């Protein structure tokens, strides 16, 4: 964009791509063998506006799948379907099959409470409860009745904070408010809070967008560690982040899933021209 | 102007307009200060007026008399017989004491005037004395007895100068007797305990505020117990559970309208429903509390909804994302965070209810009630109604009592608000 001579042809390419938009068939390898979560022909509507078109995708066990795409492409909406957080939006309708192993999570009789205990979520903005650090982490185990004794609860709090690599920073002030921590610490506290419930899948909705680079690096390191135990789906705006933390990358465009491939492949040799246009910064 | 501005830089133009901007800023600030000063001045005038008129009600003129507990005159032969103690003519021994103090008074009419120096309720204090100490029977003791309200008004308005005194219904003879008592230090202004310990009375010197205070307290308790939980429950349902549709829109419009309905209409409603249909008793704090609950509910619902709306959605997401049920989300996170705001609204509603008079008139809490209510089902009146009643009474001595009652009401309000602020401070969490 800086170079004037480059400007025109680039613009043309971008418009051309948008015009002959995407046919609808996802390229690459959206499916995998040992899927933890599998989505088939998912459509999401807000009233009459369709936000997600016919998306099918698998998230493998202990895999980190990054979802990238321009703003408004539906990646967050899609992520929020995976633990039915979209239920809180009245006008939102979801069709298609979403399965957690063999469990049909949109089955009319499926209760969201146990589902969300199995599929945890970390949000864009750090949102610790205005309670103590200890109570923040202990909240999930308490409401789900995971422990009976204070000793066990202490254990869970400590191990969760350790796994979120926050323990050393807060062990002396467990009972001071969680909202008094720095942004990066708050986000790690939210991760600790999520893993305290021992979910199987963790959904992360742009977890670093409100953080500085150092805090971001810490969270990314953490994601790599967590993937040994958990299955992770992460939505991110930063392509570098997707490249650093994920095993597979899914590229969304205008509510459609364009390409899913190994992360290395997506960033070095994308199969679809829309993906290529996006990762080379021609739009987005 | 145009030419010169072309020659000037942007920063020069900015500098040129600065002065005017600062002037405007100062004026703007001055408007605010003026508004606050006006409000404060009104408050000061109100308080000075009330306190200057009302402070004297906390003192009561008393007459010193040598009273003989004459067993014949009292017709008591056995001090342990409570029937005799109750029936005895204490007023009679006061009259005797007065005749003794002013021996030269003769004639029936003059004696009647003489007897009216002392309150006709003064005998009760003698009965109390005798019940407390039976050995007084047959002895002569000096006691301070409550003076009649005319004497009280005279003494208070007199100060040090007999010329200023308000004589009202007093005859010249009475004035002479009072002056004679004052010369001998047999008249004094003492603390008016009656005002704080008795119920209403037609005689100003026997009238007290306790009945009205208890009535207001019981009414307010009923109001708080009913309207706060119902209001919060309604607000939680409307904000967290109810779908957005025509029915909920209709409900919302109605709640907002109810908040503006004149309070006397609620009184009529209470009269028709609680007293007319449910046949509850008139004049009782229970009905008063029910009516005031109806009146306060819209305020509480509206402010609670605003407080619940102000809880950031990220906290709800966090709770739901962890697998909390909706009820857990509401009870553990939304309500604690919304509580300070809800309390603020509720306290405004309760303060309003405490000062409300009109609906209570409709349900009979304006009756003349001497007994101090002991519960929500005893006939009672309320502080603002008591103020209304006294301000309507012809006796001069009720003027100061009206102001004193207003002071009590204000003190009630201030202590309630202080409690609310303290509660809010305790519940408020820092982000």
Draw up the topology in text.
The complex is a heterodimer of chains A (about 280) and B (about 425).
Chain A: H1 4-19, E1 27-28, E2 35-46, E3 49-60, E4 64-68, H2 75-81, E5 92-100, E6 103-104, H3 112-118, E7 119-122, H4 133-144, H5 150-163, H6 167-170, H7 183-195, E8 201-205, H8 213-226, E9 231-235, H9 239-245, E10 248-253, E11 256-262, H10 263-268, H11 273-279
Parallel strand pairs in A: 1-11, 4-9, 4-10, 7-8, 8-9
Antiparallel strand pairs in A: 2-3, 2-5, 5-6, 10-11
Helix pairs in contact in A: 4-5, 4-7, 5-7, 7-8
Chain B: H1 2-7, H2 10-54, E1 59-68, H3 71-74, H4 82-87, H5 90-101, H6 108-115, H7 122-132, E2 140-146, H8 149-158, H9 172-183, E3 187-191, H10 193-197, H11 210-241, H12 246-258, H13 263-277, H14 285-309, H15 313-321, H16 326-354, H17 358-362, H18 383-391, H19 397-427
Antiparallel strand pairs in B: 1-2, 1-3
CATH homologous superfamily of the largest domain in chain B, by name?
MetI-like
* Mean pLDDT across all amino acids of chain A: 86
* Helical amount of chain B: 55-70%
Summed over residues and divided by their number, the pLDDT of chain B gives a mean of 90
Number of helices of chain A: 11
Summarize the structure.
Chain A is α/β, with parallel strands linked by helices and 284 residues long. Chain A is built from eleven helices and eleven strands. Mean pLDDT of chain A is 86; it is low at 1-16.
Explain how this protein is built.
The complex is a heterodimer of chains A (284) and B (431). Chain A has a single domain (4-279), classed as 3-Layer(aba) Sandwich (Rossmann fold), CATH 3.40.50. Chain A has eleven helices and eleven strands. Chain A has helices spanning 4-19, 75-81, 112-118, 133-144, 150-163, 167-170, 183-195, 213-226, 239-245, 263-268, 273-279, and strands spanning 27-28, 35-46, 49-60, 64-68, 92-100, 103-104, 119-122, 201-205, 231-235, 248-253, 256-262. In chain A, a hairpin with a 2-residue loop joins strand 10 and strand 11 (256-262). In chain A, helix 4 (133-144) packs parallel to helix 7, helix 5 crosses helix 7 and helix 7 (183-195) packs parallel to helix 8. The two termini of chain A are 13 Å apart. Chain B has helices spanning 2-7, 10-54, 71-74, 82-87, 90-101, 108-115, 122-132, 149-158, 172-183, 193-197, 210-241, 246-258, 263-277, 285-309, 313-321, 326-354, 358-362, 383-391, 397-427, and strands spanning 59-68, 140-146, 187-191. Chain B is mainly alpha-helical. In chain B, helix 5 crosses helix 7 (122-132), helix 11 (210-241) packs parallel to helix 14 (285-309) and helix 15 packs antiparallel against helix 16. Chain A binds chain B through residues 83, 85, 88, 90, 112-117, 120-121, 123, 125, 127-130, 139-140, 143-144, 177, 179, 190, 193-194, 197, and chain B through 243-244, 312, 314-325, 328, 332-333, 337, 429-431. Chain B: Belongs to the binding-protein-dependent transport system permease family. CysTW subfamily.
């Amino acid at each position: 964009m800086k170079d004037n001579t480059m400007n025109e042809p680039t613009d043309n390419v971008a418009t051309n791509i948008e015009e002959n938009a995407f046919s609808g068939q996802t390229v690459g390898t959206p499916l995998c063998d040992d899927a933890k979560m599998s989505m088939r022909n998912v459509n999401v509507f807000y009233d009459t506006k369709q936000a997600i078109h016919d998306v099918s995708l698998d998230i493998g066990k202990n895999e980190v799948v990054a979802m990238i795409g321009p703003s408004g492409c539906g990646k967050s909406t899609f992520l929020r379907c995976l633990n039915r957080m979209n239920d809180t939006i009245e006008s939102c309708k979801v069709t298609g099959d979403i399965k957690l192993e063999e469990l049909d999570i949109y089955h009319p009789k499926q209760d969201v409470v146990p589902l969300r205990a199995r599929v945890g979520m970390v949000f864009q903005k750090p949102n610790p409860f205005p309670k103590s650090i200890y109570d923040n982490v202990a909240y999930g185990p308490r409401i789900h009745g995971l422990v009976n004794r204070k000793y066990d609860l202490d254990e869970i709090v400590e191990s969760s904070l350790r796994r979120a690599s926050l323990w050393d920073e807060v062990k002396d002030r467990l009972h001071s408010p969680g909202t008094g921590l720095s942004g990066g610490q708050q986000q790690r506290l939210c991760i600790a809070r999520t893993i305290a419930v021992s979910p199987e899948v963790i959904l992360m909705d742009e977890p670093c967008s409100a953080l500085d680079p150092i805090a971001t690096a810490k969270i990314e390191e953490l994601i790599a560690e967590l993937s040994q135990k958990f299955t992770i789906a992460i939505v991110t705006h930063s392509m570098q982040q997707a490249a650093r933390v994920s095993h597979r990358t899914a590229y969304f465009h205008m509510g459609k899933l364009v390409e899913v491939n190994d992360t290395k492949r997506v960033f070095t040799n994308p199969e679809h021209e829309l993906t290529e246009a996006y990762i080379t910064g021609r739009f987005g | 102007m145009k030419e010169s501005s072309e020659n000037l830089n942007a920063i020069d133009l900015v500098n040129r307009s600065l002065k005017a901007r600062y002037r405007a800023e100062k004026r703007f600030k001055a408007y605010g200060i003026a508004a606050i000063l006006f409000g404060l001045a009104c408050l000061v005038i109100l308080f000075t007026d009330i306190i200057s008129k009302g402070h004297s009600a906390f003192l009561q003129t008393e007459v010193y008399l040598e009273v003989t507990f004459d067993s014949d005159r009292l017709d008591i032969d056995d001090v342990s017989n409570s029937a005799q103690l109750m029936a005895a003519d204490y007023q009679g021994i006061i009259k005797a004491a007065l005749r003794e103090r002013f021996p030269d008074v003769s004639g029936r009419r003059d004696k009647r005037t003489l007897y009216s120096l002392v309150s006709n309720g003064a005998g009760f204090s003698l009965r109390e004395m005798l019940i407390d100490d039976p050995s007084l029977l047959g002895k002569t003791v000096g006691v301070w007895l409550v003076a009649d309200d005319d004497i009280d008004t005279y003494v208070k308005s007199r100060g040090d100068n007999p010329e200023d005194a308000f004589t009202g219904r007093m005859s010249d003879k009475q004035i002479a007797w009072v002056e004679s008592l004052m010369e001998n230090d047999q008249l004094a202004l003492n603390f008016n305990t009656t005002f704080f310990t008795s119920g209403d009375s037609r005689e100003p010197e026997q009238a007290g505020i306790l009945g009205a205070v208890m009535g207001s307290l019981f009414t307010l308790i009923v109001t708080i117990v009913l309207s706060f939980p119902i209001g919060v429950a309604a607000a939680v349902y409307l904000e967290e559970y109810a779908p957005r549709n025509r029915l909920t829109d209709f409900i919302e419009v109605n709640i907002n309208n109810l908040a503006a309905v004149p309070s006397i209409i609620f009184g009529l409603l209470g009269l028709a429903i609680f007293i007319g249909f449910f046949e509850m008793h008139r004049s009782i704090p229970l009905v008063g509390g029910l009516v005031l609950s109806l009146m306060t509910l819209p305020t509480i619902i509206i402010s609670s909804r605003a407080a619940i709306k102000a809880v950031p959605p990220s906290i709800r997401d966090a709770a739901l994302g962890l697998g909390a049920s909706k009820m857990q989300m509401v009870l553990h996170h939304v309500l604690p965070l919304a509580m300070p705001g809800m309390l603020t609204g509720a306290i405004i509603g309760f303060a309003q209810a405490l000062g409300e008079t009109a609906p209570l008139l409709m349900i009979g809490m304006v009756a003349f009630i001497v007994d101090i209510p002991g519960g929500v089902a005893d006939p009672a009146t309320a502080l603002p109604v008591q103020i209304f009643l006294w301000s309507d009474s012809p006796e001069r001595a009720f003027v100061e009592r009206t102001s004193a009652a207003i002071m009590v009401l204000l003190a009630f309000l201030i202590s309630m608000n202080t409690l609310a602020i303290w509660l809010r401070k305790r519940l408020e969490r820092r982000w």
